[in-house]
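User: Need the bound-state model for pyridoxal-5'-phosphate:
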Amino acid sequence: MTHPQTRAVRAWAPPPPTSRPVAVPLYQTSTFAFEDPDACAEGLRHPDRGYSYTRHSNPTTRALETAVADLEGGVAALATASGMGAINAVLLALLRSGDHLIVQRRVYGGTQSVLMRLAERFGVAVTRISGADAGELAAAVRPETRLLYLETIANPTTEVADLPALLAAGRAAGLVCVVDNTFATPMLCRPIEYGADVVVHSATKYLGGHDDVVAGLAVFASRDVHERVWHLAADLGAVVDPFASWLVLRGLKTLALRVERHCENAGRLAHLLEGHPRVAHVRWPGLPSHPSHAVARRILDGYGGVLSFEVDGDVRAFLVRLRCAELATSLGGPQTLVLHPATTSHRELDEAELRAAGISPGTLRVSAGLEHHEDLLADFAQALKA
Ligand SMILES: *Cc1c(COP(=O)(O)O)cnc(C)c1O
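Assistant: Bound-state model below.
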């Protein structure tokens, strides 16, 4: 018999012999033990050859990666510590100094700052395009252009990129095509179907869906690209914690139901606001007045849970009066969140840049939550009376 000190550190639950867990178990372990010394090294060399150390792979994380790869129509995925972790791992693994990339002008603020750093410190040239037409993209291609970076639905203007046309032009030019599909989720759009090589997500938003986890994913159309990004992410340490993977897996189970309600509530809010005398420029892809309504109808299976609008008058007074909706950054959670981009997400832009981004001092972004629509509409209506 060993001593209590020894027995206490060897507690173990063998897998059940005649039944299996219905929910994916949380493998909250940093490392894995082996009988065979050769097998231990294999798991560190390749993403599909067993589990050795959680920075390289983990069964709970693998369950999440497999599920999201399947939903997006990819062959493999990589879960990361945040959406920015996924975006950085993809860009750093696929680009080198001297390369040129083409990016849609209105991408996420964090992505903008990564691209600026790539340009300033690593000599990667960046060209910004409106994303409205494929001809503009073709004209921006140079011999050293390597990568095209798009977002399915832009923030906060909710413009929808014409992915079939842009990705066809990107592929024709031999570019690696990356699409941030955070706002659409695979329930509304699967960019790999239109030719994307890599799809990235902030799983912090709709995939996790409960405002309680920060995580990211990159989904790949080819195993070769997956392996390159996986190696780099393991080296960078951009990897997700198993508990975060477990929370996102839990969120995935209700993704379809939640996205349906997010879209429905966003639509009801958009219609209420569009008819309101104190509101201008309501932007939600489901409104026929939206500039990309036709594209949205063609490529989305729903118009999304995010909308933006402009309050005519005192924005502060409106925000302070909201009761049901919270004033907060982030999106895709159960509660309706309202954000003032000019002083938060886009605070570093000057007036001209703000205008180019489609933002005015009165612009507000709304992430419609899962509340009963009557409570939500009543809240916005009373706050607008201020
Ligand atoms: C939030 C967000 C990101 C960054 O994700 P984090 O999980 O916050 O790192 C990237 N792209 C889009 C579109 C986002 O909304």
